[in-house]
Amino acid sequence: MVVKVYGPAYASPKRVILCLVEKEIEFETVPVDLIKGEQRSPEYLKLQPFGELPVIQDGDFILYAIMRYYAEKYRSQGTELLGKTIEERGLVEQWLEVEAHNYNPAIYELTIQLLFSSKFGRPVDEKLVKESDEKLGKTLDVYEERLSKSKYLAGDFFSLADLSHIPFTHYLVGPMGRQHMIRDRKHVSAWWDDISNRPSWKKVLELCKTPFG
């Protein structure tokens, strides 16, 4: 059964697609236009009752907390994304939590303000932008320290912890025009060059066009 991934144009589903590519799992995509509000349609709400992305449909199985599931289920194929020892797994989980609670909230708010506000006809909240820039900068300072000691966040191996950062950071250095936040930090910059040049991410960019250029 081919996995269906909804909303491939946007960053959160792209994380899932990137995981599927790394794990060599066959998938297909189903467009969802957030600007038109298609995520609030009755058909979509049957799949994801909160009206959010991402969501996958794997036969009769529907899931919206996705990456760990596929990284574990297909652990024996593709890229090992969870670490080979319990200690490595612990570090992967730790940095996934950091991404979810420290990195993503700030970069998500920047995405909403700088990329989505104009599409919804709303003014940019400059106060929120400033606060999010500051929060993200502080988090990236922690990353700079960490990445001065290891090639990747969980150690010297690429993992789900690194993968989870790629789509939103692509927005940051691209359409948001905030390349300096990455480039001003030597080790973060080297890490970004590494993970953003993976063949899997290039494939995702070819398959899934973004509304932001």
Automatic annotation (TrEMBL):
Domain of life assignment: Eukaryota
Protein's name in the database: Glutathione S-transferase F9
Source organism (scientific name): Citrus sinensis (Sweet orange)
Organismal lineage: Eukaryota, Viridiplantae, Streptophyta, Embryophyta, Tracheophyta
